[in-house]
# Entry
Amino acid sequence: MSSVKIEFSHLSKQYKDVLAVSDFSAQVISGRVTGFLGPNGAGKSTALRCLLGLVTPTGGSALVNGGPYSSLHDPIKQVGAVLDSRGFHPGLTAKQNLKVMASASGIDFARIDVVLKLVELEDATNKRTKGFSLGMKQRLSLAIAMLGDPEILVLDEPANGLDPFGIVWLREFVTKLAAEGRTILVSSHQLAEMQNTVNDVLIINKGKVVAQGSIDEIRQGKTLEEAFLALTARRSA
Amino acid sequence: MKNLLQSELRKLIYLRSNWLLLLWSGLFAALGTVAPILVFNSESRGMGMGFSGTNTPEGINAVFANAAGGYLFALIMGILIMTNEFRHGTAVGTFLVTPKRSTVLVAKLIAAAIAGLVVQVFSFLIATSAGVITLGFFEPHAPVTSELLWKIFRASVLSGIVLGIVGVGLGALVKNQIAAVTGAVIWTLIVEGLVVAFVESVGKYLPAGAITGLVDLDFGSNDFNFTIENYLSPLMATLVLLGYAALFSLVAVRTTLRRDLD
# Structure
């Protein structure tokens, strides 16, 4: 039976002169891949950072499993997140970076080899990450996100800067995780990719929800790109 | 907390730059003991700045007090522990694993105290060894007593712990690694040194002045009119240093708890 895993309720975030997110309410259902779409500066990253407790909302709430992220017990065993291609020290090897994260949350080091294999980085285990390509960095970010074997994944623009091989690899990776029944919230500009990957779509523009529903409800017979442009242009006008 | 502290210590151990910094701290402190021995025993003692030679207890005090002088590196270590998180974006991962930021900060403060302690004990050992070896070339000299070494070791340990903690607070406040480290170096090597030397009434309350009081040794410098009586007692100096540790711990916690991570 499906349940609400992520819930934004009247979420707002004001940065000095900029209202990044405004009265944003939406839900993400368990076991589904939800595409989080919006133009640059729409408020996607801010909303996700509010969800993960990295940014304090000005108003409203963002809940995971019914509570704020900060109240979760062993959060990385419940939620895995990829927010950008940094997040690990360039002077440390892939394995050392993972050991730092694993030891902080009491995760067995045996899991490190499992996640490195999962993201196909076994050959780069002992390489310092400052020599990693962008694709390798994204894979390492995903390995860190998968370290706690979480049921929920939050991915912010995971395809940014990837070459076509990387994009294909990422699509297959997300599809595989979705097939395992995980709940995935993924933001992206790759609309053609999203069309083939997601079950549900959440569109945000200027900090507000523009549309939310299943991919078929949003597309209404058009491509996702056409639907997205029509919905965001209408609101921008 | 145990897991988090282990994680922080792993970061310290894995980073090559930390080992390099430890090495530099030893070399810096060793230079502090070796150079004055050479100057005091040179034919022209114009660089001696009024200090006694190594054939007097005051001269030996002046030489070996510098064995506690590696605290700048403990301060830098503390700064790096905090600013590396922002410079490399690892703060996001750290706070995703442990959303309770106060817990993360406590782990970082403990790790910085341990790192500062290691830096200062290492510096003390290298500097005193280098000093004793160098003195061997300039017999006769006044004895290097165990009481003297104990006073310097005591000051090394406490200053290492406190400056490591202060570094975390400074790093949390400034965030920009280059600015924080540059500011710390300029403050420690230039500003604080001048204030401690020329405005004792204020300088004795600064970290370097408090460490001088904690060392509690008379250097017998006529030119600078230095006398240890003008500095804080070891007990007061300890309290002042612990005060700095408490103040900067508070700064670290307050600034980090409120900050949005964009």
About this structure: Chain A touches chain B through 33 residues (CB under 8 Å). DSSP finds eight helices and nine strands in chain A. Chain A has a mean pLDDT of 87.
